[in-house]
Specification:
heterotrimer; A alpha/beta (401); B alpha+beta (98); C alpha/beta (299); B: 98 residues; alpha+beta; two-stranded antiparallel sheet; two-stranded antiparallel ribbon; 3 helices; 15% helix; C: 299 residues; alpha/beta; 8-stranded mixed sheet; 9 strands; globular
Chain lengths: 401, 98, 299
C-alpha cells in the first residue's frame, strides 16, 4: 500500500533512505540539506530505522565513512550541499575509483566566496568529472523515486550516484508525495552484494599504489595498470545508460510513475524552439513553454535528468529537428559558458545539425527566475537568431554593465 | 591456462611473498652465522633468538641451528649488531659480485 | 628473555620480499603489532611508508586485510569500517587505523580527534618516524627541534615536537600507550592489551628511520633503544587515566639513571647542525616531560 503525504524535498529524501533500508548513514549538517540529516537522526534514535549513524566532524570524513562502510558491504547514504560537497571532492574521486555504490543526495546551493546559502547548481556541476552518476530532480516525488532508483543503479554498475535537487526551491517546499509500499521497494531493490572483499577470511589489500603498466600477480594473471582501471570506470559510466533507462522503466511498471530515463521532453515534437534545463528550473521552463505557446511561439522543452553519463544519443535524437536551442542553466564554467550548453554542443558535433544555440546563465546564488522571464528570454533570443546571431551567452536578470 | 585478464573492477591484491622481487638482491653484505658462537647451537636448544626478534623482514628461523633466508635478506645487519654472542658477521660483497 | 619471547605468536603476517627500506624500524613494529592483533583484524591506512610496505598492485606483502584511504581520512576510515562491520554484525573483527606522524599529528588530526571524541571502537596507531619520510624527509610537527629535514634544510627545525599523547589523552579515551620498535615485546604486550579494550585506543610507536634520520640501517634498534635510554621516548601506558611506566622506562624511572640526550643526538646525521643551545633545550624538554611522568606515576 502506498500513501500520499505532504513533504518537503528533504523529507522525501529521508523517506527514500528508510525505504531502501540503508545500513550506514554519515552526515555533517549544511544548509539546505540539514533537515535530511536531522530527520534520519531522529528515526535512528527512535529505532524506526535500523542503521548505524556516524556523526562525524566534517564532510571529508562523511564520504570516508561511506567509502569504508560500503567496502565491507553495507548500504550507505549521505546528503550534503555546496561547500560540504566541495570539501568531499577528494573522497568523491576515491569512492568512484573504488567502484562503490555510495548514494548521495546533493541539495544544490551556490558556492562562495562570498557566502550564499541559496540555490544554484555550481556545487554538483563542479563535481561532474569525479566519476559519479548525476541525476537531477524536478519535484519532491522525483527526489524520493530517484533515490530508490539510485541504489538499484549504483549496485548494478558499481558506480556512486548523486541525486541532485535544488536547495529551498525543492528542499524546503512542501508538495504531495506518494510514499511507495516498503515491501514493494524491497522487491524492486535486491540486497547489496559488494564486489570488494575486505574480510579476515580472505585477506586482501584494497586500493594500494598501482603502476602505470600492467603487472602479473603471483598466480600469473596479468592485472590492470592505472589507466586500464580508469577505462573500466569510464566504460561502467557509459554502460550505465542502459541500466538507468531500464531501472526507470521497471520502476514505472512497479510504481506507476515514469520520470524519464536519461531525459524527458515536453511538447518537443513540433517545436520551433527547444528550451533545455535541469532540475527545478526545467519545471519553471514548463510554465514558460505554456506562456510561449499562448503567445503563438511553438516552444518545447527538454529536461536533462541524467547529466553524467551524458545522454549523448538522446540529445542527438531530440534536437535533430529543432530550428533553435536555448539552454537555461544554474552554473557557469568560468572563462567559457554554462557546462550543459557546452555538453549539448559537443553531443551535436558531427551530426550535421547546425542549430543556433543560445545560453542563459540563470538563478545563480538564488536569484529569482520566473517563467515569464524565461519566456521573454526565449523571444529575445529568437529575434537575435532571426538577425543572424547563432551563438550568444546572456546572464539572466543580472547587472552586466 | 588461466584467463589472462583482470576481473577486478577496483584494485584488490592477494598476499604473496616477493612483491618487490627477491630482495636479497638489495644486499651489499651477507650475514654469516658462526655456529660455534650462536647460543642455540652452543646450548643445542631454543635460546636467545634476538636475531629473530629484531629482524625487520621476519626471515630468521628460530630453530637449532638458526637460519636466515638469504633470498630475501636485505642485509641491514641489525642481527649482527644485536647478537649478544657476536656470532653473526656481515661479510661485505666484493665489487661486482653479489 | 627467551621465555617471554616464545609466547609471541609464531605466525608472520608480513611476507618476505616486501618493499620497505633495509633496516626499517616501522617493519619491526608492524611485525609485532600484527602478531599481537592476529588475523581477525582489518587495517586501514593512508598514503605513507606503510603503503609501500603493503606493496604495489596486484600483490600485497601483508596477509591481513587492509583498506587504503586518503591522507586526511585514516581515523574516519576506521569509523566507517567499525560502523559497516557493526551493521553487518561483525564487530568481533578488530578495526585498526594506522598512520605515520604526518597522518596523525598533522593532516589526519581532525578526523582522529573526531573519531576519538565519538569513542569509535578501534585502535588508532601512529608510527612516529618524526617526519614525512615517504616523500623524502620533510618536516612534520613530530620532528624534534634541531633536526635537519628537506624543508628545514639550513636552519634545522626550530620548534619542539608536538605532544600528541597529551592531545589524545584529552579525549578521555580508555587506553593510550607509548612504545618503541626497539622494544618489540613491550609493543606486543600493549597491543594484546589494547585489543581486549572497547572504545578508542591510541598507541604511538617510535620508529627509527635510517634514511630519514641519517644513520646506518644496522643501528635501527640501537638508535631506538638510545631514544628510550635518554628518555626522549618513554615506554608507558595510560589506562582509564592511570599512568604507568613499562619495561625499560620503568627501570629508568626507578633508578633515575637516564642517559643525557646527547648520546641519542650524536649518532644521527639529522642533528649535525644542532646548536649547543638547541641541545640544551632538548635536554630541558625531556627533563620537564619526565618530571611530569614521575609525578603521574607516583599518583
Amino acid at each position: 500500500m502506498s500513501d500520499v503525504q505532504i513533504l518537503t524535498g528533504n523529507q522525501a529524501a529521508a523517506y527514500a533512505v528508510k525505504l531502501c533500508k540503508v545500513q550506514v548513514i554519515s552526515a555533517y549538517p549544511i544548509t539546505p540539506s540539514t533537515p535530511v540529516t536531522e530527520t534520519l537522526s531522529q528515526w535512528v534514535e527512535r529505532d524506526e530505522l535500523k542503521a548505524e549513524y556516524v556523526r562525524v566532524e566534517s564532510e571529508h570524513s562523511v564520504m570516508t565513512v561511506c567509502i569504508s562502510a560500503s567496502t565491507v558491504g553495507a548500504r550507505v547514504f549521505t546528503s550534503t550541499s555546496s561547500h560540504g560537497l566541495l570539501y568531499m571532492h577528494e573522497q568523491l574521486h576515491w569512492a568512484a575509483g573504488s567502484r562503490l555504490p555510495v548514494v548521495l543526495a546533493c541539495v544544490n546551493r551556490g558556492v562562495g566566496a562570498p557566502w550564499s546559502i541559496f540555490n544554484d547548481q555550481q556545487d554538483s556541476i563542479a563535481q561532474r568529472d569525479t566519476g559519479w552518476i548525476q541525476i537531477y530532480c524536478r519535484n519532491n516525488q522525483e527526489i524520493l523515486d530517484s533515490l530508490i532508483q539510485a541504489y538499484r543503479i549504483a549496485e548494478q554498475v558499481y558506480c556512486p550516484v548523486m541525486v541532485c535537487y535544488d536547495g529551498f526551491i525543492l528542499s524546503h517546499t512542501m508538495m504531495p508525495v506518494q510514499i511507495p509500499d516498503a515491501e514493494q521497494v524491497c522487491r524492486f531493490l535486491p540486497p547489496y552484494k559488494p564486489h570488494t572483499i575486505l574480510s579476515p577470511e580472505d585477506p586482501r589489500n584494497i586500493n594500494p599504489v598501482i603502476f602505470p603498466w600492467q603487472r602479473r600477480d603471483a598466480e600469473g594473471v596479468l592485472r590492470d595498470g592505472y589507466m586500464d582501471m580508469r577505462w573500466k570506470l569510464q566504460h561502467a559510466l557509459e554502460g550505465s545508460r542502459d541500466v538507468i533507462v531500464e531501472t526507470g522503466r521497471r520502476f514505472a511498471e512497479m510504481f506507476g510513475r515514469d520520470h524519464g530515463g536519461m531525459l524527458w521532453t515536453d511538447r518537443a515534437q513540433d517545436a520551433e524552439v527547444l528550451l533545455v534545463s535541469m532540475g527545478s528550473l526545467a519545471s519553471e521552463a514548463t510554465v514558460a513553454v505554456d506562456l510561449l505557446r499562448e503567445q503563438g511561439v511553438r516552444a518545447g522543452l527538454v529536461g536533462i535528468r541524467v547529466y553524467r553519463p551524458f545522454p549523448r544519443q538522446e540529445v542527438r535524437e531530440v534536437f535533430g529537428k529543432a530550428p533553435a536551442i536555448i539552454v537555461f542553466e544554474k552554473n557557469i564554467s568560468y572563462g567559457y559558458e554554462g557546462a550543459l550548453c557546452s555538453d549539448i554542443k559537443a553531443a551535436l558535433y558531427e551530426t550535421g545539425i547546425q542549430t543556433p544555440i543560445h545560453n542563459f546563465i540563470a538563478g545563480l546564488g538564488g536569484r529569482d527566475v520566473k517563467a515569464r522571464e524565461l519566456a521573454e528570454a526565449v523571444r529575445s533570443s529568437l529575434a537575435a537568431i532571426g538577425s543572424g546571431e547563432r551563438e550568444k551567452q546572456t546572464w539572466l536578470n543580472c547587472v552586466t554593465e | 591456462m588461466k584467463e589472462d585478464k583482470d576481473e577486478n573492477i577496483s584494485a584488490m591484491c592477494k598476499p604473496a611473498a616477493g612483491e618487490a622481487g627477491k630482495t636479497g638482491d638489495w644486499r651489499d653484505a651477507t650475514p654469516v652465522i658462526d655456529r660455534k658462537k650462536c647460543i642455540p647451537s652452543v646450548k643445542n636448544r631454543a635460546a636467545c633468538y634476538l636475531c629473530w626478534l629484531y629482524c625487520p623482514e621476519g626471515i630468521v628461523t628460530a630453530g637449532v641451528p638458526v637460519e636466515i633466508d638469504l633470498d630475501y635478506c636485505k642485509g641491514c645487519g641489525i642481527c649482527a649488531e644485536e647478537c649478544p654472542a657476536k656470532a653473526i658477521t656481515m661479510v661485505i660483497h666484493e665489487e661486482g659480485k653479489s | 628473555m627467551p621465555d617471554k619471547l616464545f609466547k609471541v605468536h609464531e605466525n608472520e603476517y608480513i611476507m618476505p620480499g616486501n618493499r620497505a627500506c633495509s633496516g626499517c624500524g616501522l617493519t619491526i613494529a608492524y611485525r609485532f603489532l600484527l602478531k599481537a592483533l592476529g588475523p581477525n583484524t582489518i587495517m586501514t591506512l593512508p598514503a605513507s611508508c606503510l603503503t609501500v610496505l603493503h606493496g604495489l598492485y596486484p600483490i600485497t606483502s601483508v596477509s591481513i586485510p587492509c583498506l587504503n584511504c586518503t591522507f586526511a581520512s585514516t581515523a574516519a576510515s576506521g569509523s566507517g569500517l567499525a560502523a559497516g562491520l557493526a551493521a553487518l554484525n561483525r564487530s568481533d573483527i578488530t578495526v585498526v587505523a594506522i598512520a605515520g606522524d604526518g597522518g596523525t599529528f598533522d593532516i589526519g588530526i581532525q578526523a582522529l580527534s573526531g573519531a576519538a571524541e565519538r569513542g569509535t571502537d578501534f585502535i588508532f596507531v601512529c608510527y612516529d618516524n618524526e617526519g614525512y619520510m615517504n616523500t623524502g624527509t620533510q618536516r612534520s610537527s613530530a620532528t624534534p627541534a634541531g633536526a635537519l629535514t628537506t624543508t628545514t634544510p639550513v636552519l634545522t627545525k626550530q620548534q619542539n615536537k608536538k605532544d600528541m599523547m597529551k592531545i589524545m589523552e584529552a579525549h578521555d579515551i580508555p587506553y593510550l600507550a607509548s612504545t618503541s620498535a626497539a622494544f618489540p615485546l613491550d609493543l606486543y604486550d600493549k597491543f594484546v592489551k589494547a585489543k581486549r579494550i572497547k572504545g578508542t585506543r591510541y598507541i604511538q610507536i617510535a620508529t627509527p628511520c635510517p634514511p630519514g634520520w641519517a644513520f646506518q640501517p644496522r643501528d635501527t634498534v640501537k638508535i631506538g633503544r638510545l631514544a628510550v635510554e635518554t628518555g626522549i621516548v618513554a615506554l608507558y601506558e595510560i589506562e582509564d587515566g592511570k599512568f604507568r611506566f613499562t619495561g625499560r622506562s620503568k627501570t629508568l624511572a626507578e633508578k633515575g639513571n637516564r642517559a643525557p640526550v646527547v648520546n641519542f643526538v650524536e649518532r644521527q646525521g639529522r642533528f649535525r647542525k644542532m646548536s649547543m643551545e638547541q641541545l640544551g633545550q632538548m635536554q630541558r624538554w625531556v627533563d620537564n616531560k619526565w618530571s611530569e611522568y614521575l609525578r603521574r606515576a607516583a599518583e
